[in-house]
Amino acid sequence: MSIVGPFTILPYYGREIGHLTNFGHGIKGQVFAVDESTLFVKGFAYDGNAPDAFFWVGNSPRPSPEGFIIPYPEEYSGREPPVLQQHTNTDIILKLPMGKRIRDIRWLSVWCRRFTVDFGEIFIPPGLDVPKPRVLPEFKRLAHGLRSSNISILDAKTFYIPNLHYDGAGPDAYFWVGNGSEPNIMGTKVPNELGSLDPLRGYQGEDIEIQLPGNLTVYDIDWLAVWCVEYRHNFGHVYIPKDLDVPPALGQTKIAPTSKPANVNCKELLRGKLNVMWEVMDDFIVIELVGRIREDQYMAFGISGSHGHPQMIGADVVVAFYDRRQRRFRAEDYYMSSLAQCDGKLGVCPDERIGVSGDRSHGVTKIKYRRLLQTNEAVNDRAYPLDRQISVIAAIGPLNSRDEANAHSHTGTEVTVDDVQIDFASRNDHTCTDALDSFREEDGPEPWPSRTILGEKTITARIGPTGGKRGYTPITGHPSWGIAWYMNDLLIPEIYVERGQTYTFIVEGGDETTQPAKYHPLYITSSHEGGYGQLTEAQKRRETVYAGVEYDADGYAYPTAAGRYCEWKHKTIDRSAEIATFDEYKKTLQLSCDDPNGQPAYLNWTVVDETPDLVYYQCFTHRNLGWKIHVVNAGETSKISGSHGLYGSVSSTVLYTLLLLALVPGLFALLPLPPKGF
């Protein structure tokens, strides 16, 4: 914005150069330098009557044939840019072609190429200081593995965030902007790189661009952050300087969604389940299948056995899947001589194994392989033509015990039932309408069983991820904000303690009071939510604290168990949705302690006789990080477990049953006998 006088605010179009001089055909317009390679003409007028007129720039002293065209519109069909049409009051963005910059030209003209006539012109002042993008520091690294390379402000509304990493485990996290010395709740959500306001997914070194919503510009904000709305926590941020001179946001900055690479084609094969991407490279075609499949399923794609309709017999396809035993992705060439399962020679038989690369995250499997365009194997392998469209087929189905393709269903959701044709010579053919990551499964993944700690007198307490839809929330029934307690390096186990015994908790949940995301003192409480430090005095009176909190001379509560910060972090992104057991999930984590020389805190708790049967270990400063502590009488844990120090995947129901039997040995005698002959 430009401010004129005390009240008038004018739109900002960049550095003003001046007005076009009219020599004929009614040329008008005010010209601005938007950035190093973009001009903006405000209110352009031209009668459209010249036969061969263009926007024309050059480096000669005056407009002359020694120049070149600035195509308008920038995107056009055909080999030659279109001649200028009539304009009466049009705002026009002109992008200099061929990598040229404003410093490389001396003038802009409306020029008739056929008759070498200058209809209107403006000269560029030498040494013009044009607005430029501003490079900022990287995101401050506070939580959930958030980090990036240096962030850039491309224009007044657009941020470029390279090498973005974030584990995706925050339940309600967004790009967030606002005012003040620190990120706070009075902010505004910023759509992600796809323009969506869904909670942020995980990122693994991606380069993205995001744009501020509505009329908001970088001149209106003090910071950009990744912020969890539900739990009011800052995962990391970068400050916006006040001395900005960046290009205006006139639409010249185009966001290229990361889901559609610039030079790779994409076609939807099965709605919401399977897409194919391809690119021709020399004598090869590189194909990537992107499918929403389970680990016991395959995805298949190839050339139909008959042009004009989908036919399996005679088809040449690749079957791609994840080999669970060998823990790697595979793609195998299949030739289909009949609809029967392979008998070793005939049927749906693998022909050869193909080298692949792959990835699996958020329930989506991506497998990339390459094939020769032309083949010397005329019987089983089909060529990929580049001179015409060809019919293709695709399917999703189950793997058999030998990791071979079993028969798929014949519904339109599992196999192509209509003729699908692809021109493999296409460039930038993006007909994929949806990113498969955006489809949500109707039934969530199976939760992990609750773990237990029995008979242990010393227990470590650290921070770690919640395990997504398999972990904290499905186990407890409570919402999470992306982290939870790991007790003896287990995700929120149920702990059994005995009355009269003393237990030591070695606490490494953070002791930096100025960083809430890394300050998690442990305490023992009657509350299934915790967060004692957030409560009002009236709320505190309804909660009983058993350990980890003391009071100062003025009666204010303060935590006593705040040690150095150690966190189990994702090595890449959160893969909980695709991993069936916690033990396997833990292999995707690594322990990181902020200060190797820092000291843990020690919470010593003697369980008095009056302690109720169920209490909770929780975080003093945040809600919903911990879980249950079962309190039993002396000697009863050994009756439950049979041995001390047992960590098991034993469900709560089984443990309660065992506990009940231990406490009431004569229970079976009280149960009615079944009818005779049962």
TrEMBL record:
Domain DM13 as annotated: residue spans: 14-125, 137-241
Keywords of the record: Membrane, Repeat, Transmembrane, Transmembrane helix
Keyword Chaperone on entry: no
Pfam families: DM13, DOMON
Chain ranges of the DOMON domain: 272-397
Transmembrane segments: 654-673
Name of the protein in its database record: AGAP003887-PA
